[in-house]
Fold inositol-phosphate phosphatase.
Amino acid sequence: MDKFAKSLIKEAAGRIRSSFSSELVVESKSAANDLVTNIDKETEQFFIKQIKKEFPDQRILGEEGFGDEISHLNGYIWILDPIDGTMNFIHQKKNFAISLGIYKDGVGLLGYIYNVMDDDLISATLGEGAFFNDIRIPLLTDGLLGQAIIGINTSWVLPNKYLEHEGIVKLLQKVRGTRSYGSAAIEIGYVVTGRLDAYMSMRLSPWDIAGGMVIANEVGAIVTTLSNHPINLLVQNTFIVARPVVHSEILDEYVRVK
Ligand code: IPD
Ligand code: CA
Ligand code: CA
Ligand code: CA
């Protein structure tokens, strides 16, 4: 299954890269900045066709809705974001990823984050560790918040309904720096490889995080909601992935969910 998933990801990525030579069809979904392209849709359809051919009984949850309606996590489920970072895909032509997690009865078995333009694959198998291309990723060590670089986006500095503002300001004063890459999967990938110390979001969907959660588990990164609860892969969640200690310090002392 791992070999099949990896070759599918590489093939899909090749198709995405070659799409740059033809014109993109861009549409808005729920809001003007919630974009989708024909390539997001075609990539999801490509995955679904190949997966169903190989594993006809397994279910697929994909962002663009071409997969199955998922109301429970029993059995095998492939949770797919065909392009995570669609805005980057359209505007920057880089910094977007394919994100895939394969779960059985709610347990993450295989996880993948593939940075399409960098040709970097982060992968993990339950109980067998995580890899950056072919190199094993070491376990994350504890970090100090005062030396941390955290991934956040502009929604953290705007008034919002999720978090108390004062704690966020203190957090931003405390950390060494902030970064915003525009792809949740890439940002989770940066945390698991130690290039960011935490990444947080006020709202992510199962397909943004399913692959990354399997990988995070294998390297000792802590993943929870911002209320410090386990993630439910059937709904949208607030989200934090971080090194040990950095995770608890952020949630204990700075982030107050309204
Ligand atoms: C989005 C990206 C973005 C995050 C959004 C996601 P999409 O995914 O991961 O970084 O802030 O919440 O929806 O729509 O590009 O697949
Ligand atoms: Ca989207
Ligand atoms: Ca996404
Ligand atoms: Ca997407």
Notes: The chain has a mean pLDDT of 96.
